[in-house]
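Problem 12. The chain below contains 305 residues. Write out its predicted structure in token notation.
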Amino acid sequence: MGKFKSGFVTLIGRPNVGKSTLMNNLIGQKIAITSSKPQTTRNRIQTVYTDETGQIIFLDTPGIHKAQNKLGEYMDSVAERTLSEVDVVLWLVEPTTFIGKGEQHIAELLSATKTPVILVVNKIDTVEKGELLPVIDKYKDMVNFKACVPVSAATGENKEDLLETVFDLLPEGPMYYDEDVVTDQAERQITAELIREQALRRLKDEVPHGVAVVIDSMKEEKDTSVRHSHKNIMNIEATIFCERDSHKGIIIGKKGAMLKEIGTNARHQISDLLGMKVNLNLWVKVKKDWRNSDSLMKNFGYKEE
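Solution.
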């Protein structure tokens, strides 16, 4: 039995490359929200993986992209700052030999850091095995990689190889969190993200990036709907903020159908997370152009540490 290893690992990559899906799969529990739309992850999400070898604290950063507003600039600065704060960087890429400007920008950032980098070729379930070698060959000289691990975040293929490779690069260290901890995020924050995920999945392309969710209240009370029940219920009031009146109409939907669908699906996920029955009330409000307002961004939880 070797010495216990521990450290901080970040996942970096272009938007929609599968960072959140991979982290959820490595942890074995849904913490980060996933969506087919880019810019899903706005804050760094800290999750914890512990086994007999050691403990890995994962920071999932926002995808790096060209900033178009203050929210975009904030997301980029969070992602770039993380590189110098961790022990290992996982760079996730698509299984294609085309390397665009986004990948070149990330390669420049990674070349300037002294932190060990592992190239992770994701989505290998979508290509033939023979197509992987040319991809690895294309990337291998861009950064001084310590290793390359092809994986499928969706199926979990090669997940154990990736964990083993990460542990090889981590220093000996303490157990930072108790072994049953999987995230340092507050329940309110994860609840807000689960609601936003359901909105992202159902709304038209012009709405999602202008959506923020704020939990107005979370109160655990006795479930009085069942007589003599000792079970509790979580009553949650939450507000979905959007940037335009027209967006508000889309989010609410015809006769409230869209908002009801968002709420129903979010309620099931939150119930699974909290392990209890959930009563969820959603409201929709307009805050014009909030993504370019420092004060509103701070109110919605997007602020520099």
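Discussion. The chain has two domains: 5-169, 187-300. Students who got a different answer should revisit the alignment rule from Section 12.3.
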